Amino acid sequence: GDEKESDTPSTRREQRRERRISRIHELAATVSARVKFVEAIMSPHEQMVGREDLRAAYSKLHVWNLTQYESAVYLDADLLILR
Questions:
Q1: What's the CA gap between 42 and 69, in Å, rounded?
Q2: What is the CA radius of gyration of the chain?
Q3: Residues with Cβ within 8 Å of residue 59, at least 6 apart in sequence
Q4: pTM above 0.70, yes or no
Q5: Of 7, 30, 49, 50, most Cβ neighbours within 10 A?
Q6: For residue range 10-67, what is the model confidence (pLDDT) as tens digits?
Q7: Straight-line distance from the first to the last Cα atom of the chain, in angstroms, rounded to the nearest whole number
Q8: Alpha carbon distance 51, 48 (integer Å)
Q9: Is the Cβ–Cβ distance between 76 and 59 less than 8 Å?
Q10: What's the rounded Cα separation, in Å, for the pair 60 and 37?
Q11: How many other C-beta atoms lie within 10 A of the C-beta of residue 57?
Q12: Among candidate residues 73, 44, 47, 45, the one with its CA nearest the CA of residue 60
């Protein structure tokens, strides 16, 4: 069938992403935290990684550039905070 431009899988995926980002900022504000999104650093060893989810694993190295802050916490996407 004819799919509206505003109802494509790509658009729906982007809308879900925007809602998640908004929710992250809301949650961070409840504890007076700031969220800093960074560009992905792709693995120079992509052929050795073999897992799509690990291709951007080097992105966590950005945390060492946050020298303007007194403290920083890196939270990976698969982390569950209980307290």
A1: 25
A2: 17
A3: 38, 39, 40, 41
A4: no
A5: 49
A6: 898 889 989 988 988 888 899 888 888 888 888 887 666 677 777 778 888 888 998 9
A7: 48
A8: 9
A9: no
A10: 11
A11: 16
A12: 73
